[in-house]
Design goal:
Arylsulfatase, C-terminal domain, 12 helices
């Protein structure tokens, strides 16, 4: 017979063990965060799109949870990516707060806590594949012909295979870890965003050499028959082929998963699709009902399908959290001529497009699948943002967020797991286009306050709808107050009818901008 004091001790230790186990992360999952480019709220079949077929992405929605009130931290590229990685709004961080040129230095200082560094500290193998667009190298920009640092490896990633900036910006080469892939030292790369370098043809001087014509800008050095932003010369053996890019990123992502299958691992997969220039592989050209843009969406879906197939083959599906979302809302004409039909709104029923503080600029698809924990076929209208991944991943893995870091990140794990908290986990969200000076919009509860009501450019919409939406100046209109529950299309300004709420939202935005979470 066990003596009473000893029996009590055994019971206490057993209870303590159960309590600790219930608080600790259960079976830490692998994490794959897929950040697509320029995918709109209604671009996927599972979100109502009819212009392209997306069976792989639809399967994520069917087997996981779909968020209908998810927001990119900005309505443009660089600031969204920086905010996702750091858990802090980019408008709080001047470097990287706006779209970066292709030769910018690294905009996230080494030593900054990032999603990657958090997960690495928790024992995860970390990798990034795809579009970077956060700058590389020291002040003055990278040495494309030497060791390129600082970069992803200095802010928490173990491995990187990158497009340095965007598909429409030079240099048109890949970087693996700290070196340009396939560079011939006898043909060094030179890049400039200030003046022409070398004597290679440009879209402005030699339009007859273009296979994809530009509609505005994008008329500098021609690479692979496409005019780019900026000038480059050299590095011919290292230059990418646009039509192979999606398959290249898919193969590199699968390779990272295979090499990390012992887990746990974190993969940040940032696709080029469907950013311009849209040059889908020939097996996708003309396949969709939506022209070149629709073809690019179907190619993006195929990339996701290749990743999901690898997880299935390696028997990693059950305990891998896969998230798919976009860096901002959809856009139609973004600098190049697409072929096909344009009689649809990629962000329907939202107002606006990429580059605006209307909902169409930042409310984006957000799908999450984790069979071991996330309910199948669920939807949630909870307010969330890409900013929240730092705190959420920390909660999943038991990682510790240093004090003062990831200051705008909220733990949304309870809603991802299907919970219905009585109090919003994210109480508000600040939208912006880029930069540190605005304009800004604030969402809190059912309400949205916009500092200015921006005009919609004809180029954003294209076609007949675009002709009816010509901008009347660049300054924008007066501030607005909108009830998003009753008016998701943001058509009715309620600032006159709800002056108290209008004033309350304005003050709250000022408070958050001044430093409050």
């Amino acid at each position: 017979m066990i003596p009473v004091p000893r029996l009590l001790l055994v019971v206490f230790l057993a209870f303590a063990a159960v309590t600790v186990a219930s608080c600790a992360p259960a079976g830490r999952p692998n994490i794959i965060f897929i950040l697509a480019d320029d995918i709109g709220y209604a671009d996927l079949s599972c979100t109502g799109g009819k212009h392209a077929r997306t069976p792989a992405l639809d399967s994520l929605a069917r087997d996981g949870i779909r968020f209908t009130n998810a927001h990119s931290p900005a309505s443009t590229c660089t600031p969204t990516r920086r905010a996702f990685l750091t858990g802090t709004y980019s408008w709080r961080q001047r470097p990287g707060s706006a779209i970066a040129p292709g030769d910018a230095p690294l905009t996230i200082p080494p030593g900054t806590t990032t999603v990657a560094s958090l997960l690495k500290s928790a024992g995860f193998r970390t990798g990034v594949v795809g579009k970077w667009h956060l700058g590389l190298g020291p002040e003055g920009g990278p040495d494309w012909n030497g060791e390129i640092k600082p970069g992803p490896l200095e802010i928490g990633f173990d491995h990187a295979f990158l497009m340095p900036a965007t598909g429409d910006r030079v240099p048109c080469v890949y970087v693996e870890d700290r070196r340009v892939v396939g560079l011939d030292p006898r043909d060094p790369i030179r890049v400039s965003y200030r003046e022409k370098v070398g004597n290679e043809p440009t879209g402005r001087e030699n339009p007859e050499l273009l296979r994809l014509r530009h509609t505005h800008g994008h008329d500098f050095t021609i690479v692979n028959g496409v005019g780019r932003i900026g000038w480059m010369t050299g590095g011919k053996a290292a230059r990418w082929k646009d039509e192979d890019m999606s398959d290249t990123f898919a193969a590199r992502a699968v390779s990272f998963i295979e090499r990390s299958a012992g887990g746990p691992f974190f993969l940040y997969l940032a696709t080029h699709g469907i950013h311009v220039p849209r040059v889908p592989h020939p097996r996708f050209a003309g396949r969709s009902a939506g022209g070149t843009r629709g073809d690019a969406i179907e190619e993006l879906d195929d990339l996701v399908a290749q990743v999901l197939a690898a997880l299935d083959r390696l028997k990693l599906v059950e305990n891998t959290l896969v998230i798919f979302t976009s860096d901002n809302g959809g856009v139609m004409d973004d600098g190049y001529e697409d072929v096909g039909r344009f009689d649809y709104h990629p962000n329907h029923p939202l107002r606006g497009y990429k580059g605006s503080i209307w909902e169409g600029g930042h409310r984006v698809p957000f799908l999450a699948r984790w069979p071991a924990r996330v309910p199948r076929g669920a939807t949630s209208d909870a307010l969330i943002a890409h900013l929240d991944m730092a705190a959420t991943f920390a909660a999943i893995t038991g990682a510790s967020v240093p004090a003062g870091e990831c200051r705008d990140s909220f733990n949304i794990l309870p809603v991802m797991l299907g919970g219905k908290p009585t109090v919003p986990l994210r109480p508000h969200f600040v939208a912006h286009n880029g930069g540190t000076d605005g304009p800004f919009a604030l969402i809190a509860g059912d309400w949205k306050y916009l500092q200015v009501s921006q005009p919609i450019r004809a180029a954003d919409t294209r076609g007949e709808a675009g002709a009816k939406a010509k901008a009347k100046g660049k300054a924008g209109g007066p501030p607005m107050l909108v009830n998003l529950v009753r008016d998701l299309g943001e058509t009715q300004d309620l600032s006159g009818k709800e002056p108290a709420k209008f004033a309350e939202m304005k003050v709250l935005l000022e408070k958050i901008r001044a430093g409050g979470q």
